Every structure is written in structure tokens, then in C-alpha cells.
# Entry
Amino acid sequence: MQVTYYGHSSFMVEVGAHKLLFDPFITPNELAADIAISTINPDYILLSHGHADHVADAAAIQQQSGATIIANFEVATWYNNQGITLTHPMNHGGQHAFPFGTVKYVNAVHSSSMPDGSYGGQPGGFIVSTEEGAFYYAGDTALTMDMQLFGRTALSFAFLPIGDNFTMGVDDAVTAAGMLKCNRIIGMHYDTFPPITIDHDEARRKFRNAEAELMLLSIGETKTM
Ligand code: NI
Ligand code: MN
# Structure
């Protein structure tokens, strides 16, 4: 799988010929000023919850690409009400087979409202299982015992928030990696805003001390996982 970072919690994951975009927040993110969303053409857009720092560019990218939005029922319905019909609604614990593999929508401990303030359902994360391996995309979440359950899937890697304040921070993310039985972690939801700025070296060291690797991608960087 190829993983490209677009800043904050947004990544493109390429599985074979399929392109999965997660939580696009690019045009409002000054750190991602070099990324032109006109070049981003996913087949699927997976949204973990309705907050603007996760969905800001979803409608524009959906319209230029014809991608299917995968999200919880309320987030999917909000897009339907704006005329975007290519959505696949899910809810917690549900799994569905797509052409690239299966997606399970799993619990996150957070909140969810849409950019206009309307109800955004319950926030979640995704466990994506493909022929090239499985990964977990946590979305915004606190550390939660549910991660022990997610670790029943053999995960090649996991995307975890590490910025603290709005989500778990580095120390809890190290614990999460242990519960997930996953030692390859891609950090997200850090440095974008002042309250979530982190010390990169210290964060990497804390993961190393737990025999795990924390990968902090540069915005625009692509990594083979
Ligand atoms: Ni959020
Ligand atoms: Mn967020």
C-alpha cells in the first residue's frame, strides 16, 4: 500500500488500483498550502466524523472525482441533502465489502457535528482489510479499551492521533499501539493548531521505548507501507 500525507488527519491510501482518501482538510490548512486539491482524485472518501477539520474539502473532491463517500449514517445523509448521492452509510460494528477490501466502522470516543452545526452522528474509525494487509484509521479519539478489540485484526499499521487536547496525546497513543498489537504507527492530528503542537523527537523516542515506530510524514510525502 502507498500512503500519501495531505496534512492534519488527511491521507490517501492506494490499495492496488483503488484510491482511498481519508478526512480531507487541505485548503483551510496553511501547512498544506502546496497541495492542490484539483490533483486529488480518489475512488472513495472515508470520513471519520463531521468536524470541519476532517470534511472541509470532501464535497469539492467528491464532485471532481465522482468518489463514493463512506461515513456514518448522519454524515452520509448530510451529503445526500446537499445533492451528493454517491454515499455509503455505515454505523458502528458494521462491516461491508468494497472492491478494495472490507471496511468496518468502529467506535471512537469524541464528538461529531457538521460544519453547519447540525448533528453528525457518532464519531468513528475504520478498520480496512485488503489483500495487501489491514490497517486501522482511528479518526479523532481518546484512548479506549475498544482498541483491544480492534487488535484482534492483524494490523500492518495504524493511523493514530497524537496531538493531545482534542484527541489522545503521545503517551496514550503509545498505550493504544500496545492494545492494537501494532508497532507501525503513522501519527496524525498534530501541529496544525497551537494546542496540538508536539515535539517530534520526543514523540518518536516514546514509541521507540515501547518497541514501536512512530512515522511522522512530511506533507506531500508518499510512503510504501
Ligand atoms: Ni473532531
Ligand atoms: Mn479533529
